[in-house]
Amino acid sequence: MNVAVAKTDRVEAADETPFALARSRLPGSGAVADLRREAYDAFQRIGLPHRRIEDWKYTDLRALMREVLPLAAAPDAEALARAAAALKLHAIDGVRRLVLVDGVLAPSLSEFGDLEPKLSLRSLRDILAGGDAALQKELFGLDSNNPMIALNSAMMTDGVVIAVADGAKLTQPLHVVHIASGGAPAAVFTRSMLKLGNDSSATLVESYIAGEGAAAYQVHDSLVIAIGDRARLDHVRLVEDGREAFNITSSAIDVGSHAHFNTFGMATGALVSRYQAVINVAGEHSRVETNGVNLLNGKQHADTTLVMNHDVPHCASREVFRAVVDDRGHSVFQGRINVRQPAQHTDAKMMTRALLLSDDAEADNKPELEIFADDVTCGHGATTGALDESLLFYLRARGLPEKDAQSLLIQAFVGEAIESIADDSLRDLAIGAAARWLEARA
Amino acid sequence: MTALLEVKNLQVSVAEREILHGLTLTVNAGEVHAIMGPNGSGKSTLSHVIAGKPGYEVTGGEILFKGEDLLAMAPDVRAAKGVFLAFQYPVEIPGVATMTFLRTALNAQRKARGEAEFSTPDFLKKVREVAGSLGIPQEMLRRGVNVGFSGGEKKRNEVLQMALFQPSLCILDEMDSGLDIDALRIAADGVNALRSPDRAMVVITHYQRLLDYIVPDVVHVMSKGKVVKSGGKELALELEATGYAQYEDKAA
Ligand SMILES: Nc1ncnc2c1ncn2[C@@H]1O[C@H](COP(=O)(O)OP(=O)(O)O)[C@@H](O)[C@H]1O
Ligand SMILES: [Mg+2]
Known about the structure:
heterodimer, A: alpha/beta, nine-stranded mixed beta sheet, 19 strands, B: alpha/beta, Rossmann fold, four-stranded antiparallel beta sheet, 10 helices, 12 strands, 39% helix, binds adenosine-5'-diphosphate, binds magnesium ion
């Protein structure tokens, strides 16, 4: 083998990677640039994950995504106008809206002014380009053994960095909206952070939507959350990306003591989506509720992969997951609960149910419990089934056409998970997203 | 005048086994018919086939509703045209609030008929009124359809729907099963309030008792998948005295 030639090949290929092509546009230099380089190397060691990697068995990105698209251009006036139009359909009242268009914070569509006391909002771009080395390092703290996190670390361009000081109870939910404006297919890389001080509370809503004409774009997003002692976070994320889009999002959540984390996620959009979250229940007497819904049809594929780490005693976690799959859709739920030896009196439960609406629909469920403490209550359960024919007939005998009867039963099926959303208007937002999926199916 | 319901020589099989062997029945608007017969004679099968439940194969005969071919219509179309079956065993639908279900169903029927949907205040007023007369508490309407309802409450919920939808043909399958006398009286009063010259009722029952409360114009005796005898309301009393044994012999 000719070493010189091989070397030349590699250098040429390296010049054309999305990372090399985007490098001059990625915020941050010096230490930040080094961290990016390291992260990209970590990504390249594995590349896009494939089915032979255990954790990605059901979501083979090498087959589904094939390649990482180049970094999207910063939005121009036209892109912002398309984004504004898309936003209209998903706007909710009474929230503070923070909008990212094609991966770039859009101040003109956002509300950064008149902040409640003890709330701070900054852009990831400013922080990476600025001089707070400690915060920068923290922002790079996600586990780069996961290739998609590593890729995101290397390429992240913007996001919202939110800090809520001790004792602050935010009255207004924060609504982070990711909009793909509908330009040429490209990839966006974003990372947001939320730090909740002790005794504080906040509500974070994330929506992923697309403007007119958005096609096979890629969203690579990540979220770092730290919840202080006695703090409460309510979190809702709704993936309503375009039907050809990809959405790969990773999150890491640290929960303090006597804290409460309630999170709800729903995928009705995107061709391929994966939400991978690691929740570290690190303080005693805390409670975590995670609820998820996938509504899939056509060739949609959605994967929710959760790791719940119980490291300390006296905590409870609940995972409720519902999948409704039609046509050739594919839903994946992987839930791992790790109860470490000190975590006595942990109460951790996981329940997943799938509703298959067609013969070709698939729902994979992989629960994993690893328990090293002996005095715990842990369990999981799973069911898979079709719509109940006798219920369908009852509804039809009362005048509901077939699709309407199905819709009512599907809404009831996912309702249990949606009910977990405490705030009325946010629950309505989720119900609305489910209704849009059902209408599109009719 | 066209009959409201004409069942002509109906033959029905389930899983390759014939259950109705050429059943004929004519019901005119304004009439109340009772169908009596021993368990297993095919009464529920007849009601299910009229309502359009899947799983039954009609191998012969026809059913006309206001002169139209009922068997060609989807179940929801039949409902919108005025066919209503009060089920022997109403199902429970967790997660669908009774109120939501009632509004969705009523508006689906109205939409199918080209009528305007009910406004929410009008609808609520109407439901409260009917529910009140049937002794159905508001709290029950917020619960999932039939979830946690007693047998009597389930049957009252069927009558509530009948009163809301105002169908022209009401088929009541064993409405009395599982009801004590008080519950039966309330449900029967609800049914009697709906008797009208443009509406017909087919009351299916195993026991004569129900017919003390809902007095029929015509009584049919069904046995082994056929109507074997028809007569006036005195036929029900006669059956009470003699039992079904003679009819079982006749059809055999
Ligand atoms: N789904 C079914 N599968 C098989 N047999 C059935 C089914 N439904 C009814 N049958 C049979 O048909 C006959 C009539 O039943 P049914 O109509 O329920 O009678 P009734 O209501 O008069 O008691 C019975 O012998 C019953 O076992
Ligand atoms: Mg019966």
